[in-house]
From TrEMBL:
Xref: PANTHER family: PENICILLIN-BINDING PROTEIN 2B, PEPTIDOGLYCAN D,D-TRANSPEPTIDASE
Pathway: Cell wall biogenesis; peptidoglycan biosynthesis
EC category name: hydrolase
Entries under SMART domains matching the protein: PASTA
Name of the protein in its database record: serine-type D-Ala-D-Ala carboxypeptidase
Catalytic activity: Preferential cleavage: (Ac)2-L-Lys-D-Ala-|-D-Ala. Also transpeptidation of peptidyl-alanyl moieties that are N-acyl substituents of D-alanine
Length: 739
């Protein structure tokens, strides 16, 4: 048998070497990857995380702005952003297009529904191409395509336009429309480089406190598979959003609404060039209302001839005769005021210049008191001689003129007190030449109203962390000094009141039916430049700086109307049509007792904590007060107002106990009382309207055991108050020292 000869197979050998080498390289690669966790210098874990780890943003809300009663002035609300898919690559089924197939029709329908939009611009956006001639995948439409309401979104969706999508968004919303617009300002969405949008304040408090109001977005991180499905048992990592801080203002929504309504009516009737108004609490310096005309709607930024600055703070004026208030105060405080002494009215020479009274000839020799009541310029010039130039300028400095008040708002102007030349010092006594701001007049007037104590005005009550409810900043009243003595302030108030009631008084238009007002009118020439002034009945700045009630002023108010189109009446008339209704309604809203109540019977309350609510209820009722038990009865754990105090009979006294709350009859309750009850009872009470309670959604006597909302509707004071009918007052509370 022939033996087989072995033949070496080069092909098989080479294949063995080749595949063996590949296996060795693969094995080495696997060992290396296991050992180092890197590939091509990159962390494999990081690359896997980048591919399979996903995250989505949690949008933070911008902080809310409230009035001092907790009613919303500005907040974020749900809106929609419009996106148009224009690339045909988005469509896989021609029968069910996912992109815009008819740009003309789409542009027309969008233009009909989107406010402030243009059909031609929308069409160009839908048909635009990139530099390479390709259409972008999607387009947006700027401000016209953002902040879309649910109503508009629904109308567009009904048209079933292919390629039109809506993304949920947050929009800054101002529910009160034209409402302290120059003070609050506005915020708008602005695009970022990464394609996201952020709400940014552009004016007013929204701009000044943008950092505090802006929140910080959160995120959700999670893991998916290659098809973007959430992996089972994968952990979600949530970084919660931090909403912006909330700002509580000193503004009172009700008083601000009174002011806005009155100013709108006067603007329509007299078409003035501009108007400003401020209402303040002289005891604290809190600004309760502030507005100006022309104005704008912060939701739309629409307005005519709008100045984009807060004139109350940022613009200086020659105040006219309102400045005589402080000339009078200086004379009384220095002891040179002699009301029955006489001077020659008509004209007064200062070197080569002659000062004249507003009628040109004066009224012959008259008393200084009559001269003030007639608003005589020469009376002020003669008083300056008695006071002394340097002393007078020092008093103006004490009153804060020529200095910023320090109000918590930006860009405050200082004004200029001219005192270099004798003629400047004389004209300053009656408010010409030198300049001030309306807020300086308000601050100075607090000293007259507050027995000599001058209070710094402020508009921010507190800033609160919206997540925790913790107060971050708390603004307290600040006394700016005592420019005059208490007796001086009382005398000034009496003389100011006489400008309304005296035979020759110039402020008769400002008399109120139920309250005694003290104040000073102003008629200032408007500077044209180069020392020239405008002239004519329609060419003045008419104003009034007043307070009420005279004996213990609770409100002070400044109103100015520039160049109104008068109809033969005095310039004080349009000013009074703002001042009178706002002051009257505000005093009644605050439950300030009318002055025709000659005798006020008081009742004394004590600290009733720990005592029987039922027994205390009988005791208080016998004293003429109205006790309200908040709870199921038993031991009292809290009360409002706190004791010991004297209250005017008829006042409500809230006694909090444990147990379910029985709903009282809210009829004719003030907003303040409703809010006190809401806070003590911890109930969901929704307040609708202004003024005093007219109806409630849940009947009185109902025991409330859950958190169901209760709606309380209010009527305005004009509807609630009738002649000779008074609502029990919460005011005039006087502290009693413990013995």
């Amino acid at each position: 048998m022939k033996k087989k000869r072995f033949r070496f197979q080069w092909g098989a050998f080479l294949l063995l070497i080749f595949y063996g080498g590949l296996f060795f390289l693969l094995f080495t690669r696997m060992v290396t990857l296991q050992a180092t966790g890197e590939a091509e210098g990159q962390e494999l874990a990081a690359r896997a995380a980048a591919k399979y780890s996903k995250e989505s943003a949690i949008t933070a809300s911008r902080g809310k702005i409230y009035d001092h009663n907790g009613q919303v002035i500005a907040e974020d609300t749900l809106s929609y952003r419009l996106i148009a898919i224009v690339s045909d690559k988005a469509t896989t089924d021609p029968k069910n297009p996912r992109h815009v197939v008819d740009p003309e029709k789409t542009a027309k329908i969008l233009a009909e529904n989107l406010p402030n939009s243009d059909e031609e611009k929308i069409y160009k956006q839908l048909t635009k191409e990139n530099a390479d001639g390709e259409k972008p995948y999607q387009v947006e439409f700027g401000s016209a395509g953002r902040g879309i309401s649910h109503e508009v979104m629904s109308k567009i969706k009904e048209e079933e336009l292919p390629g039109i999508l809506f993304v949920k968004d947050l929009k800054r919303y101002y529910p009160n429309g034209i409402f302290a617009s120059h003070l609050i300002g506005f915020a708008v969405k602005e695009g970022n480089k990464d394609g996201t949008f952020t709400t940014k304040g552009k004016m007013g408090l929204e701009y000044t406190y943008n950092k505090e109001l802006t929140g910080k977005d959160g995120k959700v991180e999670y893991e998916t598979d290659a098809f973007s499905y959430l992996l089972p048992n994968s952990e979600k990592m949530i970084t919660p959003a931090k909403n912006g801080d909330d700002i509580y203002l000193t503004l009172d929504k009700t008083i601000q609404s009174f002011l806005e309504e009155a100013m709108t009516q006067v603007e329509k009737e007299y078409n003035p060039e501009s108007m400003t108004a401020v209402v303040a609490d002289p005891k604290t310096g809190k600004i309760l209302a502030m507005s100006q005309r022309p104005t704008f709607n912060p939701d739309t930024r629409e307005g005519t001839n709008v100045k984009w600055l807060n004139e109350v703070i940022e613009e200086t004026i020659e105040p006219g005769s309102t400045m005589k208030t402080f000339t009078l105060a200086s004379a009384i405080d220095t002891g040179v005021w002699q009301p029955n002494a006489k001077y020659m009215s008509g004209s007064y020479k200062v070197l080569d210049r002659t000062i004249r009274d507003h009628n040109g000839v004066g009224w012959g020799p008259i008393t200084y008191l009559e001269g003030f009541q007639r608003s005589s310029n020469t009376a002020m010039a003669n008083l300056l001689k008695l006071i002394g130039d340097d002393v007078f300028i020092e008093y103006l400095d004490r009153f804060g003129f020529g200095h910023k008040t320090g109000i918590d708002l930006p860009n405050e102007a200082t004004g200029t007190i001219l005192s270099q030349y004798p003629i400047q010092r004389v004209t300053t006594t009656y408010g010409q030449g030198s300049t001030v701001t309306p807020i300086q007049l308000i601050q100075a007037m607090t000293a007259i109203a507050n027995d000599g104590k001058m209070m710094q005005p402020y508009v921010i009550d507190r800033i609160v962390d919206s997540s925790t409810g913790k107060t971050i900043q708390n603004h307290e009243p600040i006394e700016k000094g005592k420019p005059i003595k208490a007796d001086t302030a009382k005398q000034v108030r009496e003389i100011l009141a006489s400008t309304l009631t005296a035979k020759y008084g110039t402020a008769k238009d400002f008399i109120l039916e139920d309250y005694q007002v003290a104040g000073k009118t102003g008629t200032a020439q408007i500077p044209l430049g180069n020392g020239r002034y405008s002239w004519g009945s329609d060419e003045f700045l008419y104003s009034f700086l007043g307070m009420a009630p005279v004996d213990d002023p609770q409100l002070i108010m400044y109103v100015s109307v520039k160049r109104p189109k008068l109809k033969g009446e005095l310039g004080s008339v349009p000013v009074s049509k703002v001042f009178n209704p706002v002051m009257l309604n505000s005093l009644k809203y605050l439950n300030i007792n009318p002055e025709d109540v000659q005798h006020v019977n008081n009742a004394t309350i004590q600290d009733y904590t720990g005592q029987s609510a039922e027994a205390t209820q009988v005791e208080l009722a016998n004293d003429g007060l109205q006790p309200v038990i908040v709870g199921g009865g038993g031991k009292i754990i809290d009360q409002y107002p706190k004791g010991p105090q004297k209250l005017v009979k008829g006042n409500l006294v809230f006694l909090k106990t444990e147990g379910d709350v029985t709903l009282p009859d809210f009829t004719n309750w003030s907003l303040r009382n409703v809010l006190v009850f809401k806070s003590m009872a911890n109930l969901e009470i929704e307040v609708v309207g202004e003024g005093f309670v007219a109806s409630q959604s849940v009947s009185a006597g109902t025991v409330i055991s859950d958190k169901s909302p209760i709606v309380v509707k209010l009527k305005t004071p004009a509807e609630s108050f009738k002649k000779d009918v008074e609502t029990p007052s919460e005011g005039d509370i006087e502290q009693i020292d413990d013995e």
